[in-house]
Amino acid sequence: MSGAYVDPGAQVAEGVTIAPGAVIHAGAQIGAGVQIGAGAVVHRGTEIAEHCLVEDGAVLGKRPRLRAGSSAAGAQIGTLVLEPEATICCGAVVYAGARIGTKAIIGDQAQVRERATIGAGSVVGRASCVDFDAQVGARVLIQTGVYVTGGSVVEDYVFLGPGVVTTNDHTMGRHGSGERLLGPVFGRACRVGGGAVLVPGVVIGEEAFVAAGALVTRDVGDREVVMGVPARVVRRVPDEDLIERWS
């Protein structure tokens, strides 16, 4: 721990490795066998379970700074929880109130906002953002530079290709503070190709396939294959491509 700062009010278990320049604030709880890299910051109210890896420069437990009138203002934040063997890579920022599942990986420079959940074994790619209140299931693959908007639901085994963009506000900011935002819903094991854009509230069915660059303006049924601008159904996903053949 030479060169690191560990507040006396932090709870640090045996066998924790803390690199120089790391800062552990009072109220943080760190389990056995955790490794914390150089320059990482662990804020109050963060619980890190055993054998997690926090790489250089990561920030855990950051509190959100919200503009006046934000739809997220006033909501409870809570504790950031990292379940066993989770990995937070270099420069990633994981906010207070999020939950990162067992063996999940949050990639370099990624952001996971308050109250978002990432399921067991899921991956959030480099420079991707999972926004507030988004729910990501288990074994999900979110590639580089993806934006998962606030309130989205991403069920188990979903694949989101590089640069996928989701939206949740039909009015683009011109609504009352109490109006509910509608993120997309991604059904189990659906796949979305790189650069696709989804408008607020659309539902992508289980095992559906959205082609790269598609603009999804309406719901996609189970096992439908869609492509184009706007996206249109062109065929169905065959049995040999279902997740049970590949998991």
Structure description:
There is one protein chain. With 247 residues, the chain is an all-beta fold. It has two domains: 1-64 and 78-111, UDP N-Acetylglucosamine Acyltransferase, domain 1, CATH 2.160.10.10; 128-247, Hexapeptide repeat proteins (UDP N-Acetylglucosamine Acyltransferase, domain 1, 3 Solenoid), CATH 2.160.10. Helix content is 0%, strand content 31%. The chain contains no helices and 33 strands. It has strands at 5-6, 11-12, 17-18, 23-24, 29-30, 35-36, 41-42, 46-48, 53-54, 59-62, 80-82, 87-88, 93-95, 99-100, 105-106, 111-112, 117-118, 123-124, 129-130, 135-136, 141-142, 147-148, 153-154, 159-160, 165-166, 185-186, 191-192, 197-198, 203-204, 209-210, 215-216, 224-227, 232-236. The strands form four sheets. It has a twelve-stranded mixed beta sheet with strand order 3-6-9-12-15-18-21-24-27-30-32-33, with no helix packed on it. A ten-stranded parallel beta sheet has the order 2-5-8-11-14-17-20-23-26-29, with no helix packed on it. Strand 32 and strand 33 form a beta hairpin. The chain is globular. The termini are far apart. The relative contact order is 0.08. The mean pLDDT is 94.
